[in-house]
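testing teh design pipeline on a random one, pls ignore if ur not involved
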């Protein structure tokens, strides 16, 4: 894969135009006011983006993982916050249901997620279980035709606005990974409530919330795959999730490079454009080179992950490497963009300062850089 297909190029141009027209003009307000723009969801649905990896029969556009990566990148170029909420919805929630759901679950939940009338999220992390995902303590106890869930979830993207969530709980606290079960939970279910909505330094406008489950009643029909199969759901989804999310730092870095080039062309010092100074050109050259390297790594990885998933295999190392490099690249590129802007770049209303705040999260969410390095290293060494 060295070129995007015509269909992928069309999606790229369509999302770029949409993001320029509808997201870019409100991106600074979304960040300043920490406001989630609900009105964008049906618009993203109309463009086929919310169901980008979902089959047409459930309302999706079935354009593939790479199309989802490109859409994420183009949305992130305008607003990383919207791109993150988009990924939580389209990938973590909808794609997970598409991959693991029963026919009845797909028919019930996917159409609303694809047209944007419903908002999706995924709830795994807990206050005491982040990197150690298998250490979750939320319990699910079977009671006839329902399960009763008790516990809490932390840092959940779209948590305060979601209607439908893929949520992990322990059906057996002593059974390790075999005790984990994935459920489809509706925020309207009895016993579900939103705790704190968290105040973040970046990705403001993408709501991050604590969720509370107090005897939350979930129908047994809402178990994904089977009781005790949650770890498989989680692991199977991780490579796809990382590949999908790896598009976001590309968009942040592209926006940072665009702003830096524009500023270097217009800002004058010593009677010349700062872009005429070789030290500024070197920064721009490094930003461009790293971004190009990351983009082709991420695009190729999406292709590889999709191909191997179709054969029932996983590309964990490849997906971890793509997001590891892409995320750290975007922090470096955003940091250089501030440097090119000098003091103006350090002002709170500056866009490049926003890119620095936004980029950092991609080194933390969906597995930290350390966890990604561990996973790659472990796979390279292999079992003894
Ligand atoms: C804005 C935001 C949105 C998020 N959205 C979601 C969401 O939608 N759904 C969801 O379920 N979760 C979400 N998360 C949670 C995210 O996945 C976790 O924050 C992440 O997995 C890290 O967990 P933690 O924060 O508990 O850090 P910890 O696991 O406590 O890690 C702290 C530090 O220790 C390091 N560390 C941990 N274990 C090891 C080890 N074995 N070896 C070396 N170093 C280690 C980490 O790399 C890190 O540097 C979100 C988080 C944020 C901040």
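output:
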């Amino acid at each position: 894969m060295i070129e995007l297909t015509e269909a992928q190029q069309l999606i790229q141009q369509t999302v770029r135009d949409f993001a320029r027209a509808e997201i870019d003009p409100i991106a600074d307000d979304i960040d300043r006011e920490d406001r989630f723009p609900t009105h964008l969801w049906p618009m993203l649905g109309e463009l086929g983006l919310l169901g980008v990896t979902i089959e047409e029969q459930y309302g999706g556009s079935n354009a593939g993982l790479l199309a989802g990566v490109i859409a994420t990148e183009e949305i992130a170029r305008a607003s990383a916050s919207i791109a993150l909420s988009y990924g939580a919805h389209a990938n973590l929630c909808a794609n997970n249901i598409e991959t693991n759901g029963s026919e009845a679950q797909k028919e019930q939940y996917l159409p609303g997620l694809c047209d944007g009338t419903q908002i999706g999220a995924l709830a795994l992390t807990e206050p005491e279980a982040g990197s150690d995902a298998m250490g979750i303590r939320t319990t699910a106890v079977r009671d006839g035709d329902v399960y009763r869930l008790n516990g809490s979830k932390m840092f959940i993207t779209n948590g305060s606005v979601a209607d439908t969530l893929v949520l992990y709980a322990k059906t057996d606290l002593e059974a390790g990974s075999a005790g984990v079960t994935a459920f489809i939970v509706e925020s309207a279910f009895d016993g579900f409530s939103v705790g704190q909505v968290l105040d973040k330094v970046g990705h403001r406008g993408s709501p991050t919330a604590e969720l509370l489950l107090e005897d939350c009643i979930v129908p047994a029909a809402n178990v994904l795959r089977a009781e005790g199969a949650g770890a498989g759901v989680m692991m199977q989804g991780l490579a796809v999730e990382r590949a999908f999310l790896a598009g976001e730092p590309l968009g942040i870095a592209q926006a940072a490079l665009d702003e830096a080039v524009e500023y270097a062309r217009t800002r004058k010092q010593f009677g010349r454009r700062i872009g005429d100074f070789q030290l500024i050109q070197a920064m721009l050259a490094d930003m461009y080179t790293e971004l190009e390297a990351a983009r082709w790594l991420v695009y190729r990885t999406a292709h590889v992950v999709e191909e191997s998933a179709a054969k029932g295999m996983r590309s964990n190392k490849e997906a971890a490497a793509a997001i590891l490099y892409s995320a750290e690249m975007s922090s470096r590129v955003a940091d250089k963009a501030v440097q090119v802007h000098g003091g103006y770049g350090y002002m709170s209303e500056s866009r490049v300062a926003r890119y620095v705040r936004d980029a950092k999260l991609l080194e933390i969410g969906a597995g930290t850089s350390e966890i990604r390095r561990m996973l790659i290293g472990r796979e390279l060494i292999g079992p003894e």
